Description:
There is one protein chain. The chain is mostly helical. The protein has one domain. The protein has two helices and no strands. The protein has helices spanning 2-12, 17-48. The longest helix has 32 residues, at 17-48. The relative contact order is 0.09. The mean pLDDT is 78. Keywords: Membrane, Transmembrane, Transmembrane helix.
Amino acid sequence: MKTTIDLDEMKNIRGGNSNNTIILLGTLIMLAPALGIVLTIVKISISVS
């Protein structure tokens, strides 16, 4: 659901570059913790095995 809402917002605000960069930064900030968690899980699994 979240991704479809973000795509719709980007389509609506196609005119302004600043808004698009803010949306991209927001998605990156939201994705950063998830990527960190995945990386830590991978590191733990590698060290255990």
